[in-house]
Structure formats: structure tokens, C-alpha cells
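Need C-alpha cells for this chain, all 325 residues.
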Amino acid sequence: MTTADFAAFSNNAVAFASVVYVLAFLAHLVEWVQGRSVPVTAEQPAQVPVAAGGTEALADAPPPSDEVVAERLELFARIGVALTVVAALLHLAAVVTRGLGADPVRVPWGNMYEFSITGTFVVTALYLALLRKYDLRWLGPVVTGFAVVILMLAVLVLYVPAGPLVPALHSYWLVIHVIAAIVATGAFCVGGMASLLFLVKRRAELRGETRSTGYIARLPASSALDRVAYRMHAFGFPIWTFAALVAGPIWAEYAWGRYWGWDPKEVWAFITWVVYAAYLHARATAGWKGKAAAIIALVGLATLLFNFVGINYFFGSTSQHSYAG
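Here are the C-alpha cells for all 325 residues:
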């Protein structure tokens, strides 16, 4: 295959992955919509009414029992996960062939489009890797919906044809720097999703909502959501520290002859680091495990996303990272 063939294959793989992500999202959506009427702890099914004399009443058939509906929910859940795995494999193929589609062959994260499709893959991969360990099935519709939206924006707004890297990007430290940044970004995104759902669940708990059905009821307890959020942020923070404060400056010295230049993207990467450092420090020293910690985590996610997108649109002319657009 030629580089043009690989580039075309990457574009098609992104399209097919997006379609499969949509199907996975719909499967999870059906799972949660049907589960609205099923208690989290299913009760015994109602008995078939019996008429006097011991014969069954000639009446309409009873509705499906909670056990039958629960089996259907499990089926749609498995379908959703299976489709997510297929979409992730297509997504991975799109990322790899994007790099093979450039001339010369290179790493597939030289601009915002490539960072978007690679970062979205990392989010999905983290979800699938931790699905069983932390019982993250409740995160399925959020992750697949997130993947659909980001891939759609990447294709419609950020897409650029595959091409060679600019001279400043020809460095092994760029590879190390961006790999670490993408992994940390994926972890922060999953942690941010858990923090947002924590706020929703915690609000329902504080309001005394005792409903046993619906999406919120089927979420884990707020304390469990808080633990997942903390673990994801604790995993991503040292990787972001290495990416922003170690590998990034070393690459900057190679590319521009200085370790730090107060470039807008460098400044916002440091602001993001400060916010997440405050989040972890507050939890470790002040024992914050509730609403305040979740809000700080979401502020960190906002600074991260602004660093990724906003800098290029508002400070692109003054940033040495403008090639990333």
C-alpha cells in the first residue's frame, strides 16, 4: 500500500469507528432506558393470577418480570461493550494508518486532528481496560457518546490531510512528550466524567431521592464515583507532570533553544498542572472528598480543554505551538 492508500484507509476507519460508536451508544441507551422501570434490586416477579376453581384467569398476559427485563438489559449491555471493542479496534487502526499515510512515515499526532483522534482512543481504551476492575459499565453511554462527539468535531472542524511534520517536531522528545500528554489527557477525561456523575448522584442523595429506578439510581454510590475519579486523576497527574514539566521543556530546548518561553500553551499547561496539583493536595491534606473536590477536578478539565483548543484559536498568532492547529 502507498502512503495515499494508508491515509485513505485511516479516514475510512475513523468513519466506520464513528458509526460503530454510535451503535454502541444506542445499545447502552436502550439498556438504560429499559432499565428505568426495573428496580436496582429486583423483586420477585408477580404471580400469574388464578381464577376460582384453580384455573388460570382468561386475562391479558402479564408484563415481563423484572428478571426477564434484567436479562434484556444484560444483553444490551454486552452488545454495547462488544461494539465499543470493535469501534476501538477500528479507531486504533485509524490512528496507526494515519502515521503510515504521511510521507515520510511519522507518529500520528502532529496537529489537533491527530491529537483528537488519538486522545479519544486513549479514553476508550482506558474505559475498556478498567471496565471489569472498577465495574465501569455505567460509564458506557458517556464514553461512547464522548467518542462520537469528538470524532465528529475532529472530522468536520479539525481535519487536515496527512503530511510531513514541521521541522520543530522532528525530535524523539516530541514523541515522548505527546504520548505522556495524551495518556494523561485520557485519564483526566475519564476522571472528569466520574466527577460530573458524582455531582449528579450526590445531589440526588442529599435531596433524599430514594427512587430505585432510573439512570441516577443505577449509578454507583457517590462515594464509589468519587473513588474512581480520584484514582484516575492520581494516575494521570504524574504523567502530566512528566509531559508538561520535563519532556516538554526538553523538547522546547531542542526545537527553539530554550526550556521555557512563557508561550501561551506552556503557560496554560502549567495552569492545568497547578489546578490538578491543588485537587490532589486538597484531598491528601484537607480530606476533601466531596463536591468541592469534584468542582476543582472539572475546573482542571476545563483548563486542559482550553489549552488544547482555545489557545490555538485565541492565541494562535503568538504561540510557537500554532502548527498544532
